[in-house]
């Protein structure tokens, strides 16, 4: 019984270490589109798009990294998408996303994607014609109760741009959370060992 009680105490601590994605529709699966097709949308569930929209793809000019869908931001020209989400000022957050060049891109000048989260960001300019997905992971500190994540097409505005998929933002647990989780696991392990030793006697 004591082992069960300690396991129940430890389980919320373990769950808190795997924080959920704070974004809606991070892998663009909420919007249905048939296999082998694409369409230019004015918005996607959870995401606001620029005047030129966002191109949703399913197994066209590449394949998704996560699920079936992915997006391109150079639609009829360079465009962007953004999403705002609740944050806590001073809290550190983990941003992760993946990008890939189109297999039919028009050279490195066509490639590139810009991202920003709060007051940080970068431009990832395509260096070659590789179509393999590259995952980017970075952290940022929120400055307010809401943060906006934005992705925009870079490079030539020629409707041949970089693909984007598997976007996530999660809160980074404070060191105290890790300490509590480890203490809970150690307690469960200790009790399990003691029970095993008693049975062996």
Structure explained in plain terms:
By secondary structure, the chain is an alpha+beta fold. The chain has two domains: 1-19 and 174-201; 20-172, Galactose-binding domain-like (Jelly Rolls). It is built from two helices and twelve strands; from the N terminus they run H-E-E-E-E-E-E-E-E-E-E-E-E-H. It has helices at 2-17, 175-200, and strands spanning 37-41, 43-44, 47-49, 54-58, 69-72, 80-86, 92-100, 113-117, 120-124, 134-141, 146-153, 163-171. The protein has a six-stranded antiparallel sheet, with no helix packed on it. The longest helix is centred in the last third of the chain and has 26 residues, at 175-200. The two termini are 20 Å apart. The model is unreliable at 1-16 and 176-185 (pLDDT under 50).
Helices and strands, with pairings:
Blueprint (H helix, E strand, L loop, with lengths): L1 H16 L19 E5 L1 E2 L2 E3 L4 E5 L10 E4 L7 E7 L5 E9 L12 E5 L2 E5 L9 E8 L4 E8 L9 E9 L3 H26 L1
Antiparallel strand pairs: 1-4, 2-3, 3-6, 4-5, 5-12, 6-11, 7-10, 7-12, 8-9, 8-11
CATH C-level class of the largest domain: Mainly Beta
The appropriate CATH architecture of the largest domain is Sandwich
CATH topology (fold) name of the largest domain: Jelly Rolls
Count of DSSP-assigned helices? 2
- Give the name of the CATH superfamily of the largest domain: Galactose-binding domain-like
- What's the number of structural domains? 2
From N to C, what is the helix and strand string? Answer: HEEEEEEEEEEEEH
Quote the distance from N terminus to C terminus: 20 Å
Percent range of helical residues: 10-25%
What's the arrangement of strands in the largest beta sheet?
Answer: 1-4-5-12-7-10
Task: Give the overall shape.
Answer: globular
Number of strands: 12
Overall average pLDDT = 84
Structural class: alpha+beta
């Amino acid at each position: 019984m004591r082992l069960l009680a300690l396991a129940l105490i430890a389980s919320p601590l373990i769950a808190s270490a795997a924080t959920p994605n704070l974004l809606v529709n991070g892998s663009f699966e909420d919007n249905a589109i048939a296999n082998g097709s694409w369409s230019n949308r004015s918005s996607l569930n959870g995401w606001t798009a620029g005047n030129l929209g966002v191109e949703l793809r399913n197994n066209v000019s590449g394949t998704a990294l996560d699920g079936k869908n992915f997006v391109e931001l150079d639609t009829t020209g360079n465009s962007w998408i953004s999403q705002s989400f609740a944050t806590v000022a001073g809290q550190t957050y983990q941003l992760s996303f993946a990008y890939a060049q189109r297999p039919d891109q028009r050279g490195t000048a066509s490639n590139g994607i810009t991202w920003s989260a709060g007051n940080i960001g970068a431009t990832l300019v395509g260096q070659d014609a590789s179509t393999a997905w590259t995952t980017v992971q970075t952290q940022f500190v929120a400055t307010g109760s809401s943060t906006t994540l934005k992705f925009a097409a870079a490079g030539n505005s020629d409707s041949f741009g970089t693909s984007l998929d598997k976007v996530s933002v999660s809160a980074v647990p404070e060191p105290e959370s890790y300490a509590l989780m480890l203490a809970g696991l150690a307690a469960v392990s200790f009790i399990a060992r003691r029970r095993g030793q008693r049975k062996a006697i």
